[in-house]
Amino acid sequence: MTFAEKNITPMIKVAIVDDKQINRTTLQEKLLSKNNIEILFTASNGEDFLEKMKESSKLPDIVFMDIDMPVMNGIEAVNSASEVYPDTKFLMLTVFDDDEKIFEAIKAGAVGYLLKDENPDRLINALYEVVEFGGAPMSPRIARKSLQMLSKAKVENKKSEDSVLSDREMDILKGLVEGKDYKELANEINLSPNTVRTHISNIYKKLHVNNKTQAIKIAMKKGWFGFLFY
Question: Which CATH superfamily is domain 3-152 in?
């Protein structure tokens, strides 16, 4: 049995923000099929929404917020409203599963991200998920995108971490791992021993270590030159 079928939640106050009248009307009709949902108001863009929030005698528990709207888009509206109205939760409704917009909406303060082609029960269940359980409902496609984004961010962070050292410093650290001394490294990469010492000093600073042994341990732990240790 779905949350919507249980129909046990107290009255949920809702606002709908979408620049297209037909979308506002259609969603309103879907939501009003349940007795415990009250539509406080609808708005045609972010600016209109913020004005109606100021004028309303009651504040919505949930706002269904479109993203792409003229005058002020949904992400800007959520960003402005989430701090002023902390008890109001925002569910983004959109036809797009754009990576950047998912990230920006969540960063702005949205608690969920749903596609407009969701069936009515899914939209209504999303309200219950947020109100009863503090959930973060997402369309399956959006959820997959979010996981991909997190995975990508993890890889990029690893790359960023690994690129703390310059290419030249990585070459020198590789030489240290291979057991070469300053003179051998200097001859191999055509630098003076003093320059090699300067590079090694910089390597120690960047890796937050004090000696060659510690630097080599970090290189091994991170697998930078893993092929050397088979």
Answer: Response regulator (3.40.50.2300)
Q: Which CATH architecture has domain 164-225?
A: Orthogonal Bundle (1.10)
Quickly list DSSP for 70-94.
Answer: SSS-HHHHHHHHHHH-TT-EEEEEE
pTM of structure: 0.60
Give per-residue pLDDT as tens, 30-82.
888 888 899 999 999 999 999 999 999 999 999 999 999 999 999 999 999 98
Q: What is the pLDDT of residues 92-101, one digit of tens each?
A: 988 766 666 7
Sign for the CA dihedral angle at 84, 86, 88, 91 comes to positive
Give me the phi and psi of 72, to 5 degrees please: -145, 125
Annotated domain spans of the chain: 3-152, 164-225
Contact at 8 Å (CB) between 145 and 152? no
